[in-house]
Design brief:
Elements (H helix, E strand, L loop, with lengths): L9 E5 L12 H13 L4 E4 L11 H15 L5 E4 L5 H10 L7 E5 L8 H14 L4 E5 L1 H4 L5 H10 L3 E6 L4 H10 L5 E4 L5 H6 L4 E4 L6 H12 L3 H18 L6 H9 L16 H13 L1
Parallel strand pairs: 1-2, 1-8, 2-3, 3-4, 4-5, 5-6, 6-7, 7-8
Length: 295
């Protein structure tokens, strides 16, 4: 059966992983975050991403988190699983050994730290494509990987591998993003990886977002995305600017510390993060409290 690309249109949420004060996973609060996101009208949930602090989770914790999210969502929305790394063979092994029951697609970040050239990035994703039982969303985030997937490489991957169905583009390079949108295969999706640039990317022909801010403000942000996709740019602009100051503070002192500070004020989960991350500083916390009070 052909993959229904519409499942990945709109607002996906890179869901946080709540922690107790002792650092253990707070599954009760994770359930509350899932319900908040679904009630807010978001189209899908992305588990085990950067915002979920996945680098600090053990293998068993990753399995438990993904399983819990799939069970809690209970087919009310698609669930995407983050499966990536800078060791291609390890990613391939993970794909072959993982239980993806209830998972719609995988999100796979471009290799970080070892800085592969474009040929290396292409071969990395070729190996993932050949191993993956599910559709693949490329993830380009040069600010974290120190390596950019060029527009030409993205377009070649989109053309050469039918199960590479989308890219989460977080390069911030609108010229690059527009080139991908202009020349991509018809069914290939371009998804914003940057909350602040979501509206302009959709206005240029993008298909939605994988969002951080929608953890805390799913209703307004997902409605902004729907209005933008429908071409109602004026309505979308109002919602966009309603959230810009909040979005700025989410990243002012580290992600997901910012969004967890908002979620704590909402009494959905506490603001605990795992080292090497720490909570937001007092100046940012004060501003977050002000913005939350005004919202």
């Amino acid at each position: 059966m052909a993959f229904n690309k519409n499942k990945l249109k709109g607002t996906g949420v890179a869901i946080v992983t709540p922690f107790h004060k002792d650092g253990s996973i707070d599954f009760r609060s994770l359930g509350k975050v899932v319900e908040h996101i679904i009630k807010g009208g978001c189209e899908y949930i992305v588990a085990l991403g950067t915002t979920g602090e996945t680098p600090t989770l053990t293998k068993d914790e990753k399995t438990a988190v993904l399983s819990f999210i799939v069970q809690t969502v209970d087919e009310r929305a698609p669930v995407i699983a983050g499966v990536g790394g800078n060791n291609t063979q390890e990613v391939v092994n993970c794909l072959k050994g993982y239980d993806f029951d209830g998972v719609t697609a995988i999100l796979s970040v471009s290799p970080y730290y070892n800085k592969p050239n474009q040929r290396g990035i292409y071969q990395h994703y070729k190996a993932i494509s050949e191993a993956s039982p599910l559709p693949i969303i490329l993830y380009n985030v040069p600010g974290r990987t120190n390596s950019n997937i060029s527009a030409d490489t993205t377009l070649k991957l989109a053309s050469d591998f039918k199960n590479i169905v989308a890219i989460k583009e977080a390069s911030g390079n609108m010229e690059q993003i527009m080139k991908i949108i202009k020349h991509k295969p018809k069914d290939f999706l371009v998804i914003s990886g940057d909350d602040m640039l979501t509206l302009p990317i959709i206005a240029c022909g993008g298909d939605g977002v994988i969002s951080v801010v929608a953890n805390a403000f799913p209703k307004d942000f997902s409605e902004m995305v729907r209005q933008a996709i429908a071409g109602h740019i004026g309505t979308a602009q109002k919602l966009h600017y309603k959230l810009t100051d909040i979005t700025e503070q989410l990243f002012a002192d580290g992600n997901p510390a910012g969004v967890k500070a908002f979620l704590e004020l909402m009494k959905i989960c506490n603001a605990n993060v795992r080292l090497p991350l720490v909570k937001v500083n007092s100046k940012v916390q004060k501003r977050i409290i002000e913005l939350f009070s005004d919202y």
